[in-house]
């Protein structure tokens, strides 16, 4: 009786150990991916911009409502950025100008409510940052761009320029009235 009880106990312990090992292995396989996929904290993330006005001053503004996720994957080859913001949140500190920017000759927010960027490739740069190749969708246009970014565990920072005329933003306004190049600054806080 004693030997069969010992045998059953050893078999039961072996089954428990085997099951625990399978679950541990599964957890080890899943855990890195869940840690590396991070949501954007919209309350603490910001997109701002600057554009020259009449060649003598700069108009500064920002957007709110940044959402999306960043998945770093197990290598830069599997990393992905997918972010959007609400075009109607444009804010330059001038309500009349902001209302005009929401109209069809600029962002046309009724027809194109979101500005989005989706990466297609992320590679490491020599300076410790990353080069993110992807598609910027804005005002009904899609343009391929390469954006340099820097990151740590909680923050992603990017600074780049766009050609506003390439997105048909204020096309009837010349480069003297509104600069053609718009500088964009992105600070994303991850949670």
List the helices and strands in order: HEEEEEHEEEEE
What is the typical, i.e. mean, pLDDT? Answer: 83
Helix coverage percent = 10-25%
Contiguous uncertain segments of 5+ residues: 20-35
Distance between the termini: 58 Å
Describe the sheet with the most strands. 10 strands, antiparallel
- Widest sheet: strand order? 1-4-5-6-7-8-9-10-2-3
- In DSSP terms (H or I, runs of 4 or more residues), the helix count works out at 2
Content-based structural category? alpha+beta
* Proportion of residues in extended strands: 35-45%
How many strands appear in the DSSP assignment?
10
Q: What is the radius of gyration computed over CA atoms, rounded to a whole number of angstroms?
A: 25 Å
* C-alpha geometry: elongated
Quick gist of this model?
This protein is of the alpha+beta class and about 190 residues long. It has two helices and ten strands.
Describe the structure.
With 191 residues, this protein is an alpha+beta fold. The chain has two helices and ten strands. It has helices at residues 2-36, 95-101, and strands at residues 37-39, 46-53, 57-63, 67-71, 80-86, 114-124, 130-138, 141-151, 155-163, 178-189. Strands 1-4-5-6-7-8-9-10-2-3 form a ten-stranded antiparallel beta sheet. It is elongated and about 80 Å long. Residues 20-35 have low confidence and may be disordered.
């Amino acid at each position: 009786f004693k030997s069969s009880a010992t045998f059953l106990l050893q078999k039961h312990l072996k089954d428990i150990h085997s099951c625990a090992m399978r679950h541990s292995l599964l957890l080890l396989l899943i855990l890195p991916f869940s840690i590396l996929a991070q949501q954007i904290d919209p309350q603490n993330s910001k997109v701002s911009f600057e554009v020259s006005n009449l060649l003598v001053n700069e108009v500064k503004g920002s957007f709110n409502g940044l959402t999306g996720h960043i998945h770093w994957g197990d290598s830069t080859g599997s990393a992905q950025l997918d972010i959007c913001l609400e075009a109607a949140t444009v804010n330059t500190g001038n309500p009349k100008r902001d209302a005009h920017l929401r109209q069809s000759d600029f962002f046309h927010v009724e027809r194109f409510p979101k500005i989005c960027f989706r990466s297609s490739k992320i590679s490491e740069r020599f300076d410790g940052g990353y080069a993110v190749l992807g598609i910027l969708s804005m005002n009904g246009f899609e343009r391929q761009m390469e954006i340099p970014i820097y990151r740590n565990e909680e923050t992603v920072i990017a600074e780049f320029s766009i050609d506003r005329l390439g997105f048909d933003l204020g096309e009837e306004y010349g480069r003297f009235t509104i600069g053609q190049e718009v500088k964009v600054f992105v600070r994303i806080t991850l949670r």
